[in-house]
Automatic annotation (TrEMBL):
Name of the protein this chain belongs to: Potassium transporter KefB
Species of the source: Paradesertivirga mongoliensis
Transmembrane found in the keyword field: yes
Highest taxon above the source species: Bacteria
Positions of transmembrane segments: 21-39, 51-72, 84-106
Keyword Membrane: yes
Keywords, alphabetical: Membrane, Transmembrane, Transmembrane helix
């Protein structure tokens, strides 16, 4: 009988680093796009292409959060309370990265 929590037989990363980064960036891109499309009429002082910065910075922050989630897989595969801790830390880390990316992306335009 083999143990169900044997780290030698389990795959540590169910998804590649690139895939986790793309997932994080895609979620962040969709969220900032929805936010920007619902923003209404822009201030003329912001310039013609003011949306480019948040559309680049926020998904980059989401991709960095995807890297964090990728490295949390080591803790997540151990199961039990460590899995719950890894999921909670991943969610908190993603929210913080998304928030920081949004602030950096919108600084000088909507949040001046």
């Amino acid at each position: 009988m083999t143990p169900t929590n044997d780290l030698t037989t389990q795959q540590v990363h169910p998804a590649s680093l690139g895939r986790r980064m793309l997932q994080g960036a895609a979620i962040a891109f969709v969220l900032i796009l929805i936010f920007l499309l619902g923003a209404g009429e822009p201030n003329p002082d912001w310039g013609k292409f003011w949306m480019v910065r948040p559309l680049l910075v926020v998904p980059a922050a989401g991709a960095i959060a995807g890297v964090f989630i990728y490295f949390m897989d080591y803790l997540r595969i151990q199961g039990g309370w460590k899995r719950a801790l890894a999921i909670a830390l991943s969610l908190i880390g993603y929210i913080i990265a998304l928030w920081l990316g949004t602030v950096l992306g919108l600084d000088g335009t909507m949040w001046n």
